[in-house]
Every structure is written in structure tokens, then in C-alpha cells.
Amino acid sequence: DQGDMMPGRIATLTVNPAVDLASQAASVKPGRKIPTFGERYDAGGGGINVAKVVCELGGEALALFASGGATGRYVEEMLTTARVPWQSVRIAGACRVSVTVRDQSKEQEYRFVPQGPELTAAECADILGTLGEIKADWVVASGSLPPGVPADFYAQAARIVRARGMNFALDTSGAALASTLGQGISLLKPNLPELESIVGREVRSLPAQMAEAKRLAEDGAAEMIALTLGAAGAIVATKDSVLRLPAIAVSERTGVGAGNSFLAGLVFGLVERRPLKEVLRLGLACGAAAVRGTGTAQVRRACVEALLASGLSPVAAAVRNDAHSPSLHD
Length: 330
Prior knowledge:
Helix content is 35%, strand content 22%. The protein contains eleven helices and 13 strands. The protein has a nine-stranded mixed beta sheet with strand order 5-4-1-8-9-10-11-12-13, with helices on both faces. Strands 3-2-6-7 form a four-stranded mixed beta sheet. Helix 1 crosses helix 8, helix 8 (258-271) packs antiparallel against helix 9 (276-291) and helix 9 (276-291) packs across helix 10.
């Protein structure tokens, strides 16, 4: 029992958590045993990643997630060790194990992401019921929906959250995203492919991206749209304003958890009622801190503060080697 929540608490919802295994290999070749080294195990899944970063920033978080099998208990154990407050809803199926292998010879990352256990209708109802008892300022729902969970699950979650006077942030894709638009989303965090799936066509120029993000807010898809653009930075739009900042130039090692880290910084800034430009800068700094590490979202507060202090120069995005980097597209 987590007791009464203080104002400012950020609760996160992860329907499809994972044990994240990250390792390195000298080179990855088919048909061979690939020796790996530098293994790291992390509690993963969208909302869990957000909660970890919020805690690292000094915020108050609660990670709510579906937990099953020995892998689910391992996720719980890792969160306890990391001092991230959590609450789990028991499911019959075992939580998935996601695998990321970095090929040192090519400096490429391979990511294997299982679809997760199949949930029953009763288990889905349990998760929503538990969500309805949580006290927080914000609920951040992030990640994919596993098999058996209806496409409108996040829409149901949004209605429960908004009915209790809390803000609802969403980061997902596909049918789960499409069916939640206009259902009371306070903050929506699409990447460019997700934005294009919503509007039904390619949106490649920055002015068009800014216009489409603002139009989504005007149309009521969500009160605020935070569009992540990898090396090009990010855009935050409401019905009244649109703001874009470039990415912070960092040497990139991983794309795992960068989008979640960006979202954590954003919501943390909003909870602290910072000006929108500062909120966006904090999000970008958290995303940049995540891509510098290995494993899942290894964001350190000191690193975020150093990146913020270094400022966001206009040339930052151009400095990046690869315009199609995975940063913040996670």
C-alpha cells in the first residue's frame, strides 16, 4: 500500500513491462554462436522507464504495471533495488524479456522485442480498476499493448484518469494510439512515423511538422503534442502556441528508452509548472542523457544538469553525424 500521494506525484502505467537485457558482441553474424559481454539487466517497458527517470530527477513517481511469472518478480525486485516505488497487478502470463545487442564492428544496435504475454479480459479490468484507485497529478501511459488487450484500452484508461481530475500523458503507436485520440489526452508524445500515421501522409518539412502538431492540438486530439524528431530535436504544440528546439549534440550509443526519458523530463517539468520552453529543454536533455549510455534509459541527474548548463546551440542538430539516428524515436 503506497498510502496517500503528495501533490506532484507522477504515476506511470506499463501494461507490457519487460526484463531488458542489453549486451555487446564483437560482431553479429548469422548461423553462429555470438559470444556477448557487458550484460546489463534492467526493469523495462515504457512507463517503468519514465518512472525511473522521474525518480532520478528528484520527482515522486509510482510505477503501476502488469506482473506475471518469475520475470515479473524480477522486474519488481529490480525496481525495489533502484528505489523506484511500484505497484503491480498480477497476471497469469510471464513478463517478456527484450534483448538489445550492440555490434561493435559495425557500431549498430539490434533490438529483439517480444509481443508479451496474452492478457485476459479479467486481467485488463484489474489493471483499470487499480488505476482508478491511484492518486497522482499525472498518469503517464507508455508502451505497447500485449495480446488480448483491446485497442481502446488506453482510451478507457484516459477516461478513468480524467474523471478523477488527473492529467493523462500517452506514448504509444498503432491502433492503441489511433483509438485514444480525442479521449482526454493532456499530453501526447508521437515520433514522426506516429504523427504521419495519425495524419495519413508524409510530413517531412519542419514548418509542416510544426503546423500538423498545432493542428492536432486545435482539433482536440490532445491538449499538448510533443513531437520528437531525433536529430532535429522536438516540437511542443498547444492550440495557442508551437515551439521547436534542436537536439543536444551528444555521442550516441543507444536508442533504448530515449523517447521515454524525453517524456519523463517533459512531465516532470510540467508538474513543476516550469515555462514551456524550459519544459522542452529538460525533455531534450533527458533524451540526450539516455542515448549516451548503454542498456535502458541510464539517465543520471548530474548528466542532465550538465547538458542543460551547456545550452542548446542552434547548430546542435547539424553536428550529429546521422540525421536518421534513433534518438527520441523510441
